[in-house]
Structures are given as C-alpha cells and as structure tokens.
C-alpha cells in the first residue's frame, strides 16, 4: 500500500532504485511504508542529496538500521503509531 504524499508541503523525492533494492533485500519495505509520508520523503531526500557515494551509503545504512530497530527517525527518538 502506497502512502498518499500529495499533502506534503515539501518537494517529493522519487525513490532511487538502489534504495528500493536495499529495502527489499533487508525486508524493510513494509516498515518503510508504515512510516509517515514526511519521514519517507525526508529519508529519500537526505540520502539522495549526499554528494559522495560513501555518504549516501552511510545514510542508507542509518535508515535501514533505524527501520529495523523501529525506535528512531533521523537519529531522533521515534515512538511510531
């Protein structure tokens, strides 16, 4: 089930293929989709806007870890729904 991102006031970031592949590989796509639309968009923008490949990978790894553990969002406490 895809989230409706139409209410976001910030520009929407398209998901890069490498992010989708990582979410699928780590079986975290469902957890990603359970997050609020603004969090999904923030993660994608944050990862995509990194200039260096190693920074993109570091950010992707952080997102995957936070989704797996379920208690953080961008290194802040996240309690979920």
| Structure classification | mainly alpha
Total domain count: 1
The tally of helices reads 4
Q: Could you give the order of strands across the largest sheet?
A: 1-2
What is the CA-atom radius of gyration, in angstroms? 12 Å
Helix content: 40-55%
Q: How would you sum up the major sheet?
A: 2 strands, antiparallel
Low-pLDDT runs of 5+ residues are none
Q: Look at the structure and give the mean pLDDT.
A: 92
Instruction: Report the β-strand fraction as a percent range.
Output: under 5%
In N-to-C order, the SSE pattern is HHHHEE
Q: Characterize the overall form.
A: globular
Beginning-to-end CA distance, first to last residue: 17 Å
Q: How many individual β-strands?
A: 2
Summarize the structure.
The protein is mainly alpha-helical. The chain has helices spanning 17-25, 29-34, 37-48, 53-69, and strands spanning 72-73, 76-77.
Features:
54% helix; YdeI/OmpD-associated family protein; globular; 4 helices; mainly alpha; 2 strands; 81 residues; two-stranded antiparallel sheet
Topology at a glance:
Blueprint: H1 17-25, H2 29-34, H3 37-48, H4 53-69, E1 72-73, E2 76-77
Antiparallel strand pairs: 1-2
Helix pairs in contact: 3-4
Protein name: YdeI/OmpD-associated family protein
Pfam families: OmdA
Organism: Chitinophaga alhagiae
